[in-house]
Design brief:
The protein is α/β, with parallel strands linked by helices and 254 residues long. The protein has helices spanning 51-62, 83-100, 113-123, 141-145, 147-157, 169-178, 181-188, 206-216, 235-250, and strands at residues 2-7, 10-17, 30-34, 65-69, 106-111, 128-134, 193-198, 220-224. The chain has an eight-stranded mixed beta sheet, sandwiched between helices.
Amino acid sequence: MRDEFESEGLRLAAHLARPAEGAAAPGRPGLVLCHGFPSGPKSAAASGQTYPELADRIADDTGWTVLSFNFRGTGQSAGDFSLGGWLQDLRAAVDHLLEVAEGRGVWLCGASTGGSLAICAAAEDERVRGVAALSARADFDDWASHPRRFLEHAREIGVIRDPRFPPDADRWVRELRETRPLTLAAKLAPRPLLLIQGSDDDLVPALDARALADWHGSAELRIIHGAGHRLRHDPRAIAVLLGWLERQDTIIPA
């Protein structure tokens, strides 16, 4: 079902997937599903379009309540991209899911940038019980090393719509440098972390997943042979995710 919530006064478009009638017992968990950074020209408007369908499938297969949403600057959500803003959006999504779902805790699942930010947000929020990250970046150093070029790219793909944004360019760049999924993975431990990585990913190398796993210390790392970057379309990756979510359910205190 269509949904929405606010983050720092911005309206964010969302989709709330509830299990089929009779499939969910009271107190089942909740999952926030996070898309990645848009990749092509003017692609921000279409970002996250397939995530409601994935949310519905997860809800039906697991009995969990699943919230997918569009970060600011993408889809029908208001605002303009900043890494700090996207982190705040994810925190607001956790707040919203806890309000609308009577469950036993919240998990996060994200792809690429969404997976990296899920690790960062969970590390600072003890309400989050665990994280599944697909093709997650270990850092944003490539963006931070060429900030003007990246800012122009963000404008071209449409994730920054206001020509006057950002009002504080130094802060915008600083967020790229200081958002560190790699170091925050250690703070997430000992809560569970699933890392799913394609062996043939041409955007995020498998080295990133291995580094995140090492810093966490007890992460479950699954390399999907022959898979590329868009793991949400790979049935093997989704099978791993669903199996991991089922195992999380069995260890949740009643």
